Amino acid sequence: MIRLLIADDQALVRGALAALLGLEPDLEVVAEVGRGDEVVSAVAEHRPDVAMLDVDMPGLDGISAAAALREAAPQCRVLMVTTFGRPGYLRRAMQAGAAGFVVKDTPARQLADAVRRVAAGLRVVDPALAAESLTAGESPLTERETDVLRAAAGGGTIANIARELFLSEGTVRNYLSSAIGKTGASTRAEAARIAEENGWLI
Question: pLDDT per residue over 184-198, tens digit each?
Answer without folding.
Answer: 888 888 888 888 877
